[in-house]
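Annex B. Sample input.
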Amino acid sequence: MKNYIIAIALLLGCYSFGQEAHLNIKIDGIQSEKGKILYTVFSSKAGFPSDVDKAFKKGLTSIKNGEAQIDLDLPHGEYAVMVFHDEDDNDELKTNWFGMPKEGVGNSNNHKGIPNYKKSVFMLSGDKTLEIHLFYM
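Annex B, continued. Sample output.
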């Protein structure tokens, strides 16, 4: 009987760890239809916001009518999202000599200023929609 209880507990534990939620990200405030939107999703502060190799997911989406949309299925957990408008279509964020972005940028929680994980993080425990507003300098 004890072995059955342990087996059931293990199966239920595996099921809860394997659950995913749908994340829909709507991006607005895009100033032109040129280029594309690049995104990174981080599941920890390691590498956030610019080390793309440490991102949990990364990708791109197109712009339509001044808006873009990203649909992802992710395991439950905490995440932070960064997006930028790659207007010149070179797959890199263009910056000035101070390091300030010359293309539109945005993050989950829409805070302005130097991006950090603590200000961008959110919990994903069920289906969720985020709205990210791009900021241009």
